[in-house]
Amino acid sequence: MKNIETMSLSNRFEHLLKLMSSSKFLKMEGLGNEVPFFICPFAVKESTDMNKAIAQLIKQLQQKQVIVLELNLYQVALDILKQRNILDKIINMETDISKADLFSQLQSVLDPEKHIIPEIKARINESNHQILFITGVGEVFPYIRLHSILNNMQSLAHSKPSVFFFPGEYNANDTNGSTLRLFGVMDDKYYRAFNIYHCLTN
Predict the structure, then answer these.
(1) Which residues on neighbouring strands pair with residue 163, listed in sequence order?
(2) What pLDDT, in 10s, does the model give residues 149-159?
(3) Most buried residue, 85, 91, 155, 157, by CB count within 10 Å?
(4) Average pLDDT of each block of 10 consecutive residues along the chain (202 residues)?
(5) What's the CA gap between 192 and 104, in Å, rounded?
(6) Cα–Cα separations (whole angstroms), residue 168 to 19, 25, 185, 191
(7) Reduced to 3 states, what is the DSSP secondary structure of residue 109?
(8) In angstroms, rounded to a whole number, what is the distance separating the alpha carbons of residues 55 and 102?
(9) Is the pTM of this model over 0.85?
């Protein structure tokens, strides 16, 4: 089997389009008892091109009658801050407090379990989608970490496949668990997601 992950972005795009438009993927066949979470890793230097590819992927899937709900974590975070009327306060205090204090403030008001996941759940419930895309992972680091989102989403995203676009590496290891390396540097352990490039299209 070819290592799709090391191919050009155009080749990887074709793999993603073929896979995500397949009935096997949409019906989540062959997953056993695992949650339908798929990590789509990419190099940080590809971020701009990947964002364009994601938009094109959504468009072409729609042409194939496959509805995608994209949730950008950065936009979700901004919306929560606006809803709670604290965005301006956060912006104004940025010049007056240390980075550590700002980090602590953002972690508190954007706690995944208390705030991010309920917002994601509400948007999922309002949408008639077939696939969920989670983007903006790098933009919200370090105050929101993907492994925390994944852990907290397990209770609400079992009925449809969810794809997490990740600017870094995702290495699966049956013995030690799978490792998320954001920007190729930060290590986080996560055990229940598939590398989407390892999924067969037939």
Answers:
(1) 38, 133
(2) 988 888 775 67
(3) 157
(4) 83 96 91 86 94 97 97 95 87 79 83 92 92 95 87 78 92 68 74 84 70
(5) 28
(6) 21, 24, 8, 17
(7) helix
(8) 32
(9) yes
